[in-house]
Design a protein that fits this description.
heterotrimer; A alpha/beta; B alpha+beta; C alpha+beta; B: alpha+beta; six-stranded mixed β-barrel; two-stranded antiparallel ribbon; 11 helices; C: alpha+beta; six-stranded mixed barrel; four-stranded antiparallel β-sheet; 13 strands; 55% helix
Chain lengths: 229, 401, 403
């Protein structure tokens, strides 16, 4: 039996839009097991982005509980959450979200800085990781000087920087052409085979098929495959 | 069209509230400082001009050349005074004795100036000093043991602990004098502590200075220019004393000329202070420029849209110029109001400290000038950002994220 | 860690180059104004106080109460009598006491006139110690002797063409208040306008010139040692009260140490300086508001960046520190430029003023002033950066990422 890494229990997330309350999640139950490749799929407005924010400890639920390694994290302060996600979770975004004023190398070094790694260690690991994503010759380039695929590879290197347990990918290929997208997916698969837990959010059926398990979201709840049809 | 641009500008300023507020505050602070300082400068100027033009317009002033306290080592003798009286164009002339004296009232001792002149010319002397009798009466010729005292003796704790009254005794250099009157306020603590005696009273108190006046005041006849008369008096006195031109032991000045020399110094000080305060306006103008550059950057896309629907470069330029002008003017108006408050408060503090002549004035021209100045500062600061905005190419501007 | 944050801050500043520059300009104008004004003010104060510092610390001056401008003792209510010296000298701890007559005088030479001061030099055995005390040295000619009659020694200022169109030379005749005197010596330059512009003559000559042989303007009391000064001061006051028949609190005379005499002058100067500084500081507040504005804009523009950093593990405190330091940086860089500019400005202005004839004006930019203004400009930046940095730190990562 695999161990549970992240577990959402009856999680509600409610936003206030003016006077109207919008329920993005309505009692969502979701469990991410160690070492799996999970795809969260759903149409826009289904609450999948909100779900990812909660799984990634970027946000806290309005109601319900979130366990990370069996610890309840739903009541932690933002600053403490930052510390946890910095150590446990690596993010890959659709828009890459690199810091434009920093070089590839500095971007990869940043999460390690927040965890207090020494300069020397950061430098060494950043070079290793950028070589791993075949960008060893682009260390001092700024994001604007890189192609989309290259930028996403820098983002992957950054996600791996502190060797997190979970990689969260939000539409990782959404801004890439299909060929580059494929290579990014291959890379994620490779990471999964090496033991990383990967959670991917997408609306793309074909992409979702490449994951080990798919969870469908609609109106803030998990639905079965049959319900989809 | 312009009306709509104005509305659009106001909307945008309100839209980025915090930044507009901060920018307005910065120009406000600068204008406030400038406004307050200038209002004081103008107030002093007006006061001096009043003294020079109203009470001093027809008066001359003759004194010995020397440094320091008047009436000690340099003086104008009585026969010189007689010469001055006889100069054509001089209506009348009077000699003043001035001494620094020890004053005693009850158990308190103070040191202030005492002045003595011929009571026959009381009216002229009072007019020259800008004072009236406010209580009691003026001195009469030949009175020895009587004095008229300055305004500050009327109040407690200004000169003496207790206020003085007509009929009370005050000791000058240990000789008793009876107070017969009080004069009105001059507006600074020194002059308002003066004590006035008759010339004979002074001569009795200080026999050694008899006929050696600290200075002489003369009144020009109607229609005689005091500045020209001063030269004429100078020549007559010089000849009387047998002195060479350029080596006189005395000097003659018209009252207004003498006062104007003094005003020049005050003006210079005030100008320096205003210049220093202007530094903050310059800094504020840099702030406005900064805010406007930011606004142009943020609204790049909007500029693109406007251009694509037909806005000319000059329209875009005007939009930003109007915006920065409004920021400057708003800051200026609030700054003027606050400057008024600050200056008025400063004026009452000065008055409480005895300097009632040190009062700010707020002529309409100053208010209008400051408002226009702030509008100008705003628009000048906006010129470069506005030009930058107007020159953006629509295609690039639209593409901007 | 701090170094890394500093690097990040710097990157932010560099990114919006024009606006960072404009913000810094605001600060450096203000700092330059303050530094140059403080530099000039301090220089002027030092110059002025040094004019009066020639008496040394082991002496006291006695004067009668007078209006307080012009030479000491002038216009005095109750002048000092010249029989006081012997009595003061008999006080324990007093070395000697000199009487001095200091009077306003009209000096004439080469058909030009100049207002100045005559100062008397004590005669007999006191002459030597007086000269030592004031450290008087002759440049040309000689100092006065007891036998001199109608002879004067002039300050160094008169040895130049500036005053009378041609230099006064030893052996020439000058007129003082119309009376002829022969110049027998010119003093060495002292840099004090009082000494350099003075006219020294024997006490007897001064008494005759001013028709007064019973009163003196100033008594200088030389005390045996500095430690005895307070006690001697008390005893001199006691003696004078008795001699002049006045009660405590009603004194018509003053016994002061030179330092005390300087104090009141310093207070006046300080009050003026303070007022000027306050006005100059206004521009720094305006500059600070500029920083605040820039930082608010920076926070807004970098909302997404803040979100990314939070997502990859930056704590609130780190985000705060990042913007806080950035703000301080802007202040500091503005301060460095401003201090440099202010330094040059104050020296330049002082130089121009000296060229224009105001020889007293010196700029004095002390290391303390430089360090102080740098520290101040950094603090100014950080203080005005607190609110924007707090806003950045409190952003919610999800919302920030969206923005």
């Amino acid at each position: 039996m695999k161990k549970s890494i992240i577990k959402l229990v009856k999680v509600w997330k409610t936003y206030k839009m003016g006077d109207v309350e919008v329920h993005a999640l309505r009692g969502l139950d979701l469990e991410v097991m160690q070492g799996e490749f999970l795809a969260i799929q759903g149409p826009s407005g289904s609450g999948k982005s909100t779900a990812m924010n909660l799984v990634g400890c970027l946000d806290i639920p309005t109601k319900g509980t979130i366990f990370l390694d069996t610890h309840d994290i739903s009541k932690l302060t933002e600053s403490n959450l930052a510390q946890i996600r910095g150590r446990k979770i690596g993010f890959i975004f659709q828009q890459f979200n690199l810091i434009n004023t920093l070089t590839s190398m500095e971007n990869v070094m940043l999460p390690m800085m927040f965890q207090g790694f020494s300069e020397e260690k950061r430098r060494k690991r950043a070079i290793e990781l950028l070589e791993l994503v075949s960008l060893g010759d682009r260390l001092d380039h700024k994001p604007k000087e890189l192609s989309g695929g290259q930028q996403q590879r820098v983002a992957i290197a950054r996600a791996l920087a502190v060797d997190p347990d979970v990689i969260l990918a939000d539409e990782p290929t959404g801004n890439l052409d299909s060929k580059t997208g494929d290579s990014v997916m291959d890379f994620l698969n490779k990471l999964n085979k090496e033991g990383k837990t990967i959670v991917m959010v997408t609306h793309d059926d074909e992409l979702a098929q490449k994951a080990g398990r798919i969870v469908y979201l609609k109106d803030g709840q998990v639905i079965t495959k049959e319900d989809r049809k | 069209m312009k009306h709509e641009l104005l509305k659009y500008a106001v909307f945008n300023i309100l839209h980025r509230k915090m930044r507009s507020l901060l920018t307005v505050i910065s120009i406000m602070i600068g204008i406030m400082a400038v406004f307050a300082l200038v209002s004081f400068g103008l107030g002093i100027q007006r006061y001096v001009n009043e003294v020079a033009n109203e009470s001093g317009a027809d008066k001359l002033f003759l004194q010995g050349k020397g440094n320091g306290a008047m009436g000690d080592t340099f003086y104008i003798s009585r026969d010189t005074l007689e010469v001055v009286k006889k100069v054509k164009g001089v209506e009348l002339a009077v000699g003043q004795y001035i001494k620094f004296a020890k004053l005693k009232y009850k158990d308190q001792v103070k040191y202030h100036y005492i002045m003595g002149s011929d009571p026959k010319e009381n009216d002229f002397v009072q007019e020259s000093f800008g004072i009236d009798i406010v209580k009691g009466r003026a001195l009469k010729s030949g009175e020895l043991g009587k004095v008229v005292v300055g305004y500050n003796y009327l109040s407690a704790d200004k000169v003496f602990k207790r206020p003085l009254y007509v009929g009370e005794k005050i000791y000058i250099n240990d000789a008793p004098f009876e107070i017969v009157g009080f004069v009105s306020e001059i507006g600074n603590p020194d002059d308002d502590a003066n004590i006035y005696l008759t010339d004979s009273g002074m001569e009795l108190l200080y026999p050694e200075v008899k006929d050696k006046f600290s200075f002489v005041m003369a009144k020009a006849e109607d229609g005689v220019d005091p500045t020209i008369l001063a030269d004429y008096v100078n020549e007559k006195v010089r000849k009387h004393l047998g002195e060479e031109e350029g080596k006189e032991t005395f000097e003659v000045q018209s009252f207004s000329d003498a006062i104007k020399t003094f005003t020049t110094i005050i003006d210079i000080i005030n100008v320096v202070l205003v210049l220093i305060a202007l530094v903050s306006v310059i800094v504020a103008s840099v702030n406005i420029m900064n805010t406007m550059y930011t606004a142009v950057l943020e609204r790049t896309k909007e500029i693109g849209v406007m251009k694509s629907i037909g806005a000319r470069n000059s329209d875009i330029r005007d939009i930003f110029l109007i915006e920065s002008g409004i920021i400057g003017l708003t800051g200026g108006i609030i700054g003027i109001i606050l400057g008024y408050v600050v200056a008025s408060t400063g004026g009452s503090i000065a008055a409480a400290a005895g300097f009632s002549s040190l009062q700010p004035i707020f002529p309409f021209s100053l208010i209008l000038g400051c408002a226009l100045f702030s509008l100008m500062i705003g628009m000048v600061s906006g010129i470069f950002p506005a030009i930058q905005a107007s020159r953006q190419r629509p295609v690039e501007a639209l593409r901007y994220e | 860690m701090l170094v890394d944050l500093l690097k990040l801050s710097w990157a932010g500043i560099k990114h919006r180059r024009l606006r960072s520059w404009l913000t810094m300009i605001g600060i450096f104008i203000g700092i330059a104004a303050v530094v140059s004004l403080v530099g000039l003010g301090e220089g002027l104060r030092v110059a002025i106080t040094s004019q009066f510092g020639f008496l040394g610390t082991d002496s006291l001056t006695v004067t009668a109460v007078s209006p307080g401008f012009g030479p000491p003792g002038q216009g005095a209510v109750n002048p000092l009598k010249d029989d006081l010296m012997k009595k003061i000298e008999s006080i324990q701890g007093v070395n000697t006491a000199y009487a001095r007559i200091v009077e306003s005088a009209l000096l004439e030479y080469n058909d030009n006139q100049r207002m100045s001061y005559v100062g008397s030099v004590p005669e007999g055995h006191d002459r030597k110690s007086f000269e030592t005390m004031l450290n008087l040295n002759i440049e040309t000619g000689r100092l006065l002797r007891d036998s001199d009659k109608a002879k004067v020694v002039l300050g160094n200022r008169y040895s130049t063409e500036d005053i009378f169109g041609k230099p006064v030379e030893v052996g020439k005749e000058v007129l003082i208040n119309g009376e002829p005197f022969i110049v027998i010596g010119i003093l060495e330059k002292k840099g004090s306008f009082i000494v350099d512009g003075s006219i020294l003559m024997n006490e007897q000559d001064a008494k005759e010139l001013y028709n007064d042989d019973k009163t003196v303007d100033l008594i200088i009391v030389k005390v045996e040692s500095e430690a005895l000064v307070p006690q001697v001061q008390e005893n001199v006051e006691k003696l004078l009260r008795k001699e002049r028949g006045v009660k405590v609190g009603e004194e018509d005379f003053q016994v002061q140490t030179p330092a005390k005499a300087l104090e009141s002058l310093n207070q006046t100067l300080f009050a003026i300086q303070l007022f000027v500084y306050i006005i100059a500081t206004i521009s720094l507040v305006v500059g600070g508001i500029g920083i605040m504005n820039t930082m608010y804009t920076a926070v807004l523009e970098r909302t997404r960046e803040i979100g990314i950093m939070k997502a990859i593990g930056a704590r609130n405190s780190m985000i705060f520190l990042l913007f806080f330091l950035e703000s301080g940086f802007i202040g500091l860089v503005g301060g460095i430029i401003g201090t440099g500019l202010g330094f040059s400005l104050s020296h330049g202005l002082a130089f121009l003023a000296r060229q224009a004839g105001f020889r007293l004006i010196q700029a004095s930019v002390s290391p303390l002033l430089i360090f102080g203004s740098l520290a101040f400009s950094f603090s100014l930046g950080t203080i005005f950066g607190v609110l924007p940095a707090l806003r950045a730190a409190k952003m919610q990562p999800v919302e920030a990422l969206r923005g």
